[in-house]
Design brief:
single chain, mainly alpha, Arc Repressor Mutant, subunit A, Four Helix Bundle (Hemerythrin (Met), subunit A), 2 strands, about 5% strand, elongated, DNA-binding transcription factor activity
Length: about 220
């Protein structure tokens, strides 16, 4: 694929991604390929390339020669997502305690404060975006590129889930500050406990599983 073609498909990918993350194409809805092609003045080829990338991200499902649609979340899907998110965020925090600097933790705290401000403004899109940035930066501090890549894909789904469920009030964002406090104190057990409180109830991850996670960290 030449650079110009790659650039066009990347632009289309970002366009469709923003439509999905803004809720303009809702969970379970078909991707309006013809409408997007007409709006952007392009052929279907770069759209199909963009859709393949979105499918690789796990945000859409493609039914060959039929249509593509945004994924939906059932209760079991949410629990599965929550289990993985808890596990990866705990690992991210452990690595951040080892590798992170106080300056990085200060930046993380700022992202958490911005996330809470957008929730107070009832801006669900920006709240979800800043929340993802908070957790991705936590992973970045840990200096593990493999974990960061996993988290980047996971948090695209997380942003979609928050917007689709209109779930801004189901997660206590004040705990972002407590997470940073624990990281700054280099207190691994406290960091794990706060992350479990922060995420466990949102995803309806059972108390037994949450307790097992905490035991594993001791």
């Amino acid at each position: 694929m030449n650079a110009k073609k790659q650039s066009l498909s990347d632009t289309v990918y970002e366009h469709i991604l923003e439509l999905i993350l803004h809720g303009e194409i809702a969970c379970g809805e078909k991707i309006p390929e013809d409408r997007i092609a007409a709006q952007l003045g392009i052929s279907r080829t770069p759209i199909r390339e963009a859709l393949r990338k979105l499918a690789a991200d796990g945000l859409i499902e493609i039914y060959p020669k039929r249509f593509a649609q945004v994924i939906s979340f059932g209760e079991e899907d949410m629990r599965h997502l929550g289990v993985v998110r808890l596990s990866q965020d705990i690992l991210a925090a452990q690595l951040a305690i080892y590798h992170g600097s106080n300056a990085e933790f200060d930046k993380l705290r700022q992202l958490g404060q911005e996330c809470r401000r957008y929730q107070e403004l009832d801006d669900l899109y920006m709240r979800a975006k800043r929340d993802a940035q908070f957790h991705l930066y936590l992973s970045e501090i840990g200096k593990n590129p493999i974990l960061l890549r996993f988290q980047q894909q996971l948090y695209l789904k997380t942003r979609l889930l928050i917007v689709s469920q209109k779930a801004a009030d189901r997660c206590d964002l004040s705990l972002h500050n407590d997470i940073v406090d624990a990281l700054t104190a280099r207190d691994e057990q406290a960091a794990v406990e706060v992350i479990v409180r922060h995420l466990g109830s949102f995803y309806d991850v059972g108390e037994g599983y949450r307790y097992s996670l905490q035991l594993l960290q001791k």
